[in-house]
Amino acid sequence: MATFKAIRIDKGDPGQTVALTDFDEADLMDGDVTVRVEWSTLNYKDGLALTGKAPVVRRWPMIPGIDFAGTVEASSHPAWKPGDQVILNGWGVGETHLGAYAEKCRVKGDWLIALPAGMSGREAMAIGTAGYTAMLAVMALERYGVRPEQGPVIVTGAAGGLGSVAVALLSRAGFEVLASTGRPQEADYLRSLGASEIVERAELSNPARPLGRERWAGGVDTVGSHTLANVLSMTRYGGAVAACGLAGGMDLPTTVAPFILRGVSLLGIDSVMCPKPKREEAWRRLASELDRAKLAAMTREIGLDDVIAAGRDIVEGRVRGRIVVKIG
Prior knowledge:
By secondary structure, this protein is an alpha/beta fold. The protein folds into 2 domains: about 5-115 and about 300-325, Medium-chain alcohol dehydrogenases, catalytic domain (Quinone Oxidoreductase, Chain A, domain 1), CATH 3.90.180; about 130-270, NAD(P)-binding Rossmann-like Domain (Rossmann fold, 3-Layer(aba) Sandwich). It contains 10 helices and 15 strands. The chain has helices at about 45-50, 120-145, 160-170, 185-195, 200-205, 225-235, 255-260, 275-290, 290-295, 305-315, and strands at about 5-10, 15-25, 35-40, 65-75, 85-90, 105, 115, 155, 175-180, 195-200, 215-220, 235-245, 265-270, 300-305, 320-325. The longest helix has 24 residues, at about 120-145. The chain starts with a strand and ends with a strand.
């Protein structure tokens, strides 16, 4: 087909314009694999791109969407052939390279990985970058040596997509999980995912003391700013915190006290340019370790024409769990 449906962001004056429109296939960017996109998802970064709340988009026009699952239509890459089921997370797609909120996408074959056996494209996008990042954070805590017998772990922004998957994964791994959220009405939902205790967001959102009472052996932080500072200040001696989000801000108003007086480590998690072997390991583990029933319970489905409104909702904190986007 010469044209296909896509969400297009154009640079305005001021700001930007966003619309669902027909996009010319001839205007796709260079790449050695063309994929028929069947499923995508909505991450916090996608919301920032759709609303223009942060400078995610660095090329105009842009098709947003940092994740997709689909079927290879054409390929000159040796690893892929027509009919292959593939997924993509990151690599600048939806930021500097035309992205996933479209019926077609042309990308570099090196950016793709095979859809794990036994996992549908819909399930892969119910996980998406948020869930894949959560697994990278869990893997980082494991490599550091954080173990269930050392004490509880905390997940901040727990009712969001990344946080929800992190709670489910850590609970399955045997950890006592404390779930921090600013939405107390989600307490039952978080307990259903495996949280043993709910921590009010207000407990972690004020300026942090250099050191607080030691409460957890580690954590996964999706918020940043004062929340991350408080989590670090209350991490037990020798513990570690995986930082993978900035919903509360990019700043980190803390001191060196947790690091030099308690030996706490801050583990940075990058999902966008993560090397292929590590991302393949993360997806293999997601296929076997993430409870599919819990995944289904945290997921709702929308169509491509609902994405723009949902982008506003996720930035404004009105989205629970994961959103999967049916393309076409």
